[in-house]
Design a protein that fits this description.
By secondary structure, the chain is α/β, with parallel strands linked by helices. It contains twelve helices and ten strands. It has helices at about 15-25, 50-55, 105-110, 130-145, 185-195, 235-245, 270-280, 320-335, 355-360, 360-370, 375-380, 380-390; strands at about 35-40, 60-65, 85, 95, 115-120, 145-150, 205, 265, 285-295, 305-315.
């Protein structure tokens, strides 16, 4: 089965938490003052935004808006490109939770009785929306307000997991909790997991997705993709992301500044045919590598010709983290004098290595740099993944 389904097969109808909230749960919130944490991808099947739907169904109920990283309209780029507080055309405040403050203040929440969260998470630990939600739960508990997560499918399936659990010394804004890189949870399930770990849990309600099963990828549903952030333009980019995000901690380009972010990896010091030939020898599952050249217009190596490979997943045996760790192993072997780690700051961390925060464990890069095999490192995570599956077994909402 390929990731992109044939047009001959009908995709499964799926209703998001947003749509079910509007259809079935409005009665419980009439007369309550609401806040909404959302972005440009918080839409229904007809591309109507959550705020439009809520304003139509609950006139004058939504008092305050909040935006995650990349902004309310998804206009901002990555890594400490901050959004400013703003207002809607009718004067309602839009508070940025990716700027001077990354958590709502008690004052921001003082005008509402419940905070609705409708964010399209992409199933990867380092995606900051989960951290934003986690901080909202903490502050909501202090403010004695309800948090309502309008759930959405995990676009890269809820049946696949990869990676180590986050180590305590790698906690940062790209990872607050001990979950694997590819965690296999929806945002609603993540909220249940996070809330269970809080000393003072918030009053939490999940409005679940209807019609989604754990093994489904995004293209198995009838939902429409709206990019959740500027560099995830399609569902395949989200599938690549749990591995390709590691390049953010290096001087190798993950193709930001091109039309194929995360699909391509390279640098001026790399030779496309050599990298591709090396990768062929590993016989990685479910993937084909194509030698390619590209020239970013911004971000790393802007205006310079880079060589590398484009990653073409072929079927669902593809393992994004294993694939990108293997590419890193090859780059370290071929280019020890040109390859560099990125220095801080990275996502509001000013001292620790970005690569460690991304991978969630200091030893992963250090072991690769002295010749350890990516496959052996990746395989060593199996016991941790088994433990995580036991930990989340009772909070899973979908079978």
């Amino acid at each position: 089965m390929t990731f992109i389904p044939s047009h001959r097969f009908k995709r499964a109808p799926v209703q998001t938490g947003l749509e079910l909230f509007v259809e079935e749960h409005l009665g419980s919130y009439r007369g309550k003052r609401l806040g909404l944490l959302a972005n440009q991808a918080s839409v229904d099947h007809a591309y109507r935004h959550a705020l439009e739907l809520l304003d139509s169904a609950l006139k004058d109920h939504v008092k305050v808006l909040f935006s995650p990283q990349h902004g309310w309209a998804g206009e901002k780029q990555d890594n400490m490109v901050e959004s400013l507080d703003a207002k809607t055309g009718d004067g309602r405040p839009i508070y940025s939770l990716y700027g001077e403050s990354r958590a709502p203040t008690l004052e921001m929440l003082s005008e509402i009785d419940a905070l609705l969260i409708d964010l399209p998470d992409v199933g990867t630990r380092v995606y900051t929306f989960a951290q934003t939600m986690s901080l909202c739960l903490e502050v909501a508990s202090k403010a004695h307000i309800e948090v309502v997560v309008l759930d959405r499918p995990n676009p890269i399936s809820g049946a696949e997991r990869e990676g180590n659990l986050l180590d305590d010394d790698c906690v940062s804004f790209v990872g607050f909790h001990p979950i694997p890189m590819r965690h296999g949870l929806t945002l609603g399930e993540l909220a249940l997991f996070v809330n269970s770990r809080l000393k003072d849990p918030a009053a939490l309600t999940i409005v679940p997705v209807k019609g989604w099963k754990r093994e489904m990828y995004f293209n198995d549903t009838d939902l429409n993709w709206v990019l959740p952030s500027p560099n995830l333009p399609n569902p395949v980019s989200a599938w690549l992301y749990p591995g390709q995000v590691l390049w953010e901690g290096t001087n190798v380009s993950e193709a930001r500044g091109t039309t194929a972010p995360f699909h391509v990896v390279g640098a001026p010091f790399m030779k496309a045919t050599t990298i591709a030939r090396e990768l062929e020898g590993f016989k990685l599952p479910g993937v084909v590598f194509r030698p390619t050249s590209f020239q970013p217009t911004f971000n790393k190596w802007a205006g310079e010709l880079c060589q590398g490979v484009q990653i073409h997943p072929q079927d669902r045996s593809y393992k994004p983290l294993l694939t990108s760790l293997t590419i890193l192993q090859i780059v370290l072997k071929l280019h020890p004098d040109s390859f560099r780690l990125k220095d801080p700051p990275y996502e509001y961390e000013w001292n620790r290595r970005p690569i460690d925060l991304i991978l969630g464990r200091k030893s992963i890069f250090d072991d690769l740099s002295v010749g350890a095999a990516a496959f052996d490192i990746w395989r060593s995570f199996a016991a941790e993944l088994g433990e995580f599956e036991r930990q989340v077994k009772d909070i899973l909402l979908y079978r």
